[in-house]
Amino acid sequence: MNIEEYMKTELTNKLLSTPMKLLLIIGLLYEENKEWPGVSEIYSQINRNTHVWYNWQDFFLQQGLIEIKETKSSVGSAKKVVVLTDKGKKIYENLKYCLDRLILIENEK
Fold first, then answer.
1. How many other CB atoms are found less than 10 A from the CB of residue 94?
2. What is this structure's pTM?
3. Where are the beta strands (DSSP E) in 1-109?
4. What separation in angstroms does the CA of 12 have from each of 22, 61, 100?
5. Could you give the CA distance from residue 66 to residue 1 in angstroms, rounded to a whole number?
6. Residues paired with residue 66 on neighbouring β-strands, in sequence order
7. How high does pLDDT run on average in the chain?
8. Coil, strand or helix at 52
9. In Å, what is the CA distance from 78 to each residue of 29, 38, 51, 84, 94?
10. Could you give the dihedral angle defined by the CA atoms of residues 45, 47, 51 and 57, in that order, rounded to the nearest 10 degrees?
11. What mean pLDDT comes out for the span 22-30?
12. What is the pLDDT of residues 72-93, one digit of tens each?
């Protein structure tokens, strides 16, 4: 499943809290693009709601789930990317595993 399919799934929307959805988005964007997403890419997945992201960004940083790194974009300008730490990756992988199993069960009905 791609990120759009995950985010349209009723289970994702009803079962996951906002911070868990954000971790899922970060991990899925990385899997799809093979590079860590920029903050603007995360915004686009949450309907450009910067308030939602900034409410949770500090929490994720304090808990050691993400790092914000500055890189260069393809045109050479500065770009901030969000990187899951090892702890963040473990949570993402387990979250995705559980969500995949629940979707599979739901589709068998």
1. 10
2. 0.88
3. 66-72, 78-84
4. 11, 23, 10
5. 23
6. 84
7. 89
8. helix
9. 19, 11, 22, 19, 32
10. 0
11. 95
12. 877 888 889 999 999 999 999 9
Residue 86, burial from CB neighbour count under 10 angstroms (0-12, 13-18, 19+): exposed
Residue written as tokens 């686009």? 44
Token digits of residue 8: 């349209």
Measured distance CA(76)–CA(73) in Å, rounded = 5
Compute CA 25 distance to the chain's CA centroid, rounded to the nearest angstrom.
2
Which pLDDT value is given to residue 31?
95
Of 107, 105, 23, 35, which is closest to residue 71 (Cα–Cα)?
A: 35
The count of other CB atoms within 10 Å of the CB of residue 18 is 12
pLDDT above 70 (res 48): no
Phi, psi of 72 (to 5 degrees): -105, 140
- How far apart CA 40 and CA 79 sit, in angstroms, is 9
